[in-house]
Amino acid sequence: MYRFAIDNQEELQEGITRVLREQYELIIQLTSIPDDIDISVHEIRKAIKRIRAILRLVRWDIGEEIYQSENMRFRDLARQLSQIRDYHVIITYLAENFEAEELHIPEANFISLINHLNSKKELELKRLIDNQTLDTIKEQMEISSKELKEFPFDFLGPHTIRQGTSNSYSQCLNKISETQLKLDDHPLHELRKRVKYLLNQMILIQEVWPDFFKTYSTSLKQASDLLGDDHNIAESILLINNLPAKVISDEDKNSLTDSFRKEREHIHRDLWPLLGKLFTEDAKSFVKRITSYWLISRE
C-alpha cells in the first residue's frame, strides 16, 4: 500500500508528493493501532528517516528555510522515540548473544541486568503514554499532509536528482574519510546516518534501472546494517559502563565490554572492504552516472 519508489510513468513532482503523503499516512496508521509498541516505534522511525532522505533530495528546490524547518521537525519527532527504541535494541541484542553463549556472565547476574533494563524501558513507555507522544506525532503527520500542497515542487527535475544525490554521496565520502582518521563512535554514527540517507534515495529512484539500483541498494543495506550493529554495540557499551555497581559488577562489566569490542572488530573487518567497493567513484562521476540513468528512463 505504501510503496517507497517513484514510477517511471510519474513526473518527479507527482512521485515525490505521493510518496511523502503515503509515508505520513503510514505513520498515522502506526500511531493509531500500536498492537506492538516496539514494532510500531521502529517502523515510525524508519518512515521518518525516509521522509528526511526525501527532504535532502529536494533541499535546493524547496529552499533552505523550509528544509531546515521540516528536517528539524522530523528529527525532533524521531528523538522522542529514540530512548525506548534503544532499550529494546540493547535488551534484544544482549538476550540473543547470551542465548548464543557469546557473553561470559553468570546467568543470575544476566537476568538481574535484563530485569533492570526492562524496568527502565517500562518507565520510558509510561513517559510516552503520559506525554501522549504518539498522539502528538499523529497530529504532526496530519498537519504535514495538509501543508504538502504548499511545497514549492513545481520545478522538480533532473537537477533535483543531481543535487540531492550529489550531496548525499559526497557526505558519505567525507564521513568515511573522517572515520578512517579517527575510528570513534561519533564519526561512525554520522557515517551510518549518511549511508542510510543515500540508501533511501537509491530505493526511491530504483525503477529508473531496477537491476542496477536493487543490486547497489542491497550492498548499501548491508553496509547500513553493519554500521547499525556497530552503533548498537557502542550504545550497549556506554549504557553498561554507566550502570551502578548494584546492577552489575565491574567484573561483569569488563567481561561484557570485552565481548562487545571483539564483535565490533569483526564488524569492521566486513565493513571497510564493503564501503570501499560502494564508494570507489568520486562524487562527480557517481552523480553523472545516476543522472544519466534518470534522463534515459524518462525518454
Automatic annotation (TrEMBL):
It holds the Pfam family CHAD. Residues 16-274 form the CHAD domain. SMART domains: CHAD. It comes from the Bacteria. Signal peptide: none annotated. This is CHAD domain-containing protein. It comes from Carboxylicivirga marina.
